[in-house]
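#struct-help
A.M.: can someone run this one for me? Single chain, 71 residues.
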Amino acid sequence: EVLFKLPSEVRSIKTLSGVFALRLAPRLQEGDIVVMDNLVSNKVVGVADLINSAGAELFYLPPYSLDFDPI
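D.P.: on it. Structure tokens below:
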């Protein structure tokens, strides 16, 4: 089940941090799993701590590789 999908209007790291703090964190419960891609803005300082402090686990998708998606 998708609990939260990042709104398309998020365009800056500052906005992203606010979205995590105000929209995602209050919905997280112990045992939830958050999966994010390797976008630099997803690795903002404090985001992992925010997710972990709610009792949720954070996982990043593996980096993109042509080996997994040959053309």
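A.M.: thanks! The longest strand covers residues 33-36.
D.P.: also worth noting: DSSP finds two helices and two strands in the chain.
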